[in-house]
Amino acid sequence: MSKKTHSVTFEDIQKAAKALKGAIIATPLNKSITLSKLTGAEIYLKFENLQFTASFKERGALNKLTNLTDEQKHNGVIAASAGNHAQGVAYHGSRLGIPTTIVMPVNTPFVKVRQTEEYGAKVILTGERFDDTAAQAEKIAQEKNLTLVHPFDDLDVIAGQGTIGLELMAACPDLDIILVPVGGGGLISGVALAAKHINPQIKIIGVQAERFPSLHRALNNYDYQQQGSTLAEGIAVKNIGDKTYPICKDLMDDMLLVSEDALEEAVCLLMTIEKTVPEGAGAAPLAAVISNPEIFKDKKVAMIISGGNIDPRLLASLLMRGLVREGRITRLRIVLLDVPGALARITEIIGGLGGNIIDVSHHRLFTELPAKETYSNVTLETRDRENLQDILNGLRSAGFTVHVNRSSDL
């Protein structure tokens, strides 16, 4: 471990652990037998999505609140956030009797606004972009003498997040690697300070979405380029924190970037294998292992599932896309003669080979095929890729021309 003196100490993290005891869940660290077999690493999952607000953000928010002066508690706090940090500040502020104001962008989904208000916070909607929202929060803080609770670039917040590192090392002292999702750097800074103090040889590896590489960009000195949205919205931060960056640079061993496809796959794996709900950011560590198995082979690896706040509609879409990826739901375009019984013959073949037809659309007019031919779009469910291949072979053997409407070589 580096001998450099940091702005947050191990003693600060120990103090935070005492302050949080009884108010924060010491979340379980469980070995995943199935994911271990799948990846070739010995995988342990830290379920921070089991916190009351379904995110690790509660830890830093509560530690900040407990370290306020009596005057600051009386005046109240303010935070700019549209997600997990907002709920953590609102919930624990209300629980401790501290007035809380949360500033959110105007396009924040209503369900998030309502949930934050139900936790007892006053919500102000302002700003099209989050940078504008954050600037407005700072302005309100000065005008109304409120204490600003930053989501990551705050020493008390970093110490609070570091309590996860204490729990990890207590539960499994011989870990080789801890994988941490990284946005602004508060979580990985705290975890690295705690874990490396206990075991200087342990490796701390950060994970970011390719589209929002705030820390990777700072470490490698290249400019920010807008690349669209990301499934890992919880770590979609433009710039790393001023206080977190020096800690990350000194203590982090590696930084990995993951694609949107890998994030989708990781969310689906955690849902189907571990029966736990992760948000995109929470699935980033597993996405890193899936994408870089050679780095983690035969290593004892802990992954922090940082949160589980994901839109149900998005989750449903991801699970369906996962079934498509696995070849279990497929859309076929089948060319057939426009004669009685042709469509019935298709359904007979599919059903006889164990396929389940979900949807059929039959096209006669809007087609470039000859007048005596038509086509049907058939969406079907199969057991697996092998079952799908059997159905394709059966249809083609019967003389039908079949196209698979997805990325596949079948």
Tell me the count of domains.
3
Give the terminus-to-terminus CA distance: 51 Å
Structural class: alpha/beta
- What is the quaternary state of this protein? single chain
Parts with pLDDT < 50 across at least 5 consecutive residues: none
Largest sheet: spatial strand order: 1-2-10-7-8-9
Helix % is: 40-55%
CATH topology of the largest domain: Rossmann fold
Radius of gyration: 25 Å
CATH architecture of the largest domain: 3-Layer(aba) Sandwich
Count the helices. How many?
17
Note the overall shape: elongated
Annotation, overall tally of beta strands: 14
Largest sheet: 6 strands, mixed
Estimate the strand proportion.
15-25%
For the record, what CATH class of the largest domain applies?
Alpha Beta
- The mean pLDDT is 91
Structure description:
- The protein is of the alpha/beta class and 410 residues long.
- The chain has 3 domains: 214 residues, Rossmann fold (3-Layer(aba) Sandwich), CATH 3.40.50.1100; 69 residues, Rossmann fold; 78 residues, ACT domain (Alpha-Beta Plaits), CATH 3.30.70.260.
- Helix content is 45%, strand content 19%.
- It is built from 17 helices and 14 strands.
- It has a 6-stranded mixed β-sheet with strand order 1-2-10-7-8-9, sandwiched between helices. Strands 5-4-3-6 form a 4-stranded parallel β-sheet, with helices on both faces. The chain has a 4-stranded antiparallel β-sheet with strand order 12-13-11-14.
- Helix 3 runs parallel beside helix 5 and helix 9 packs across helix 11.
- The chain starts with 9 loop residues before the first helix and ends in a 6-residue tail after the last strand.
